[in-house]
Write a sequence for this structure.
């Protein structure tokens, strides 16, 4: 889940706006947790990666 859809329980504003200290702390924490290997890939790039993986698997199966 991304923080742009979260609502702060303290001030009832979107966390992405960072209106109160609780929002700002949550936004910082979520930004640091969001760093993963697939976070920067677009859905199209993921589909291409999946197709390439399937193609390699088919080629390896035919070679065996």
């Amino acid at each position: 889940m991304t923080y742009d859809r979260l609502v702060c329980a303290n001030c009832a504003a979107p966390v992405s706006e960072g209106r109160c200290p609780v929002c700002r702390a949550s936004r910082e924490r979520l930004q640091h947790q969001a760093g993963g290997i697939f976070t920067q890939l677009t859905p199209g790039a993921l589909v291409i990666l999946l197709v390439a993986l399937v193609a390699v698997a088919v080629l390896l199966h035919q070679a065996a």
